[in-house]
Specification:
Radius of gyration: 15 Å
Strand order of the largest sheet: 1-2-3-4-5-7-6
Shape: globular
CATH superfamily of one domain: Gcn5-related N-acetyltransferase (GNAT)
CATH topology of one domain: Aminopeptidase
Helix content: 25-40%
Largest sheet: 7 strands, mixed
Strand content: 25-35%
Structural class: alpha+beta
Order of helices and strands: EHHEEEHEHEE
Number of helices: 4
Distance between the termini: 14 Å
Length: about 160
């Protein structure tokens, strides 16, 4: 089941724990518990989509929102490895973009490591365009692709 616009009012130390654990396990630079709690309590500046299989969290997408710029910044997206290739990531991203568009956002921006071999192709298939390669973007000196997508007026799942 895909849930986008996960109710921020439901986030607390217990309910946010699966998101924090996934972040710590799969991202090289995970957020702290405080960052998660601070940001996810603020649904005017942040947006999260979640993907569940029965009662288990199997993925999420986290965006920062700038309504002044009509821009969403995709910070993190993840689907557990055993669910990759099942279209779950595509469905999660698509559902999140529909909800983000309804919040008045017209463009989505992201950075993705050049060392992540699958992600740039995933974003290209989702109609993101590569803007530039940012050299030495990450603290370890590795580079990233900056990508963006304009959201059409009639966006739907």
């Amino acid at each position: 089941m895909i849930k986008t616009g996960y109710p921020h009012s439901l986030f607390n130390v217990e309910t946010i724990h699966p998101f924090i654990e996934m972040d710590r396990e799969f991202f090289e630079w995970p957020w702290s518990e405080k960052q998660w709690l601070d940001t996810l309590r603020d649904d005017s500046n942040y947006f999260v989509g979640a993907c569940w299989e029965e009662e288990e969290l199997i993925g999420f997408a986290l965006f920062g929102l700038s309504k002044i710029e009509s821009l969403a910044h995709l910070y993190k997206i993840l689907i557990l490895e055993e669910f990759r290739g099942t279209q779950k990531a595509k469905k999660l991203l698509s559902a999140a973009l529909v909800d983000i568009k309804q919040k008045g956002i017209d463009r989505v921006y992201l950075e993705v490591s050049v060392n992540n071999q699958q992600a740039p192709n995933f974003y290209k298939k989702s109609q993101f365009e590569t803007l530039v390669k940012k050299r030495n973007f990450y603290s370890d000196g590795s580079s990233a692709f900056a990508m963006q997508k304009y959201l059409p007026e009639n966006l739907s799942n």
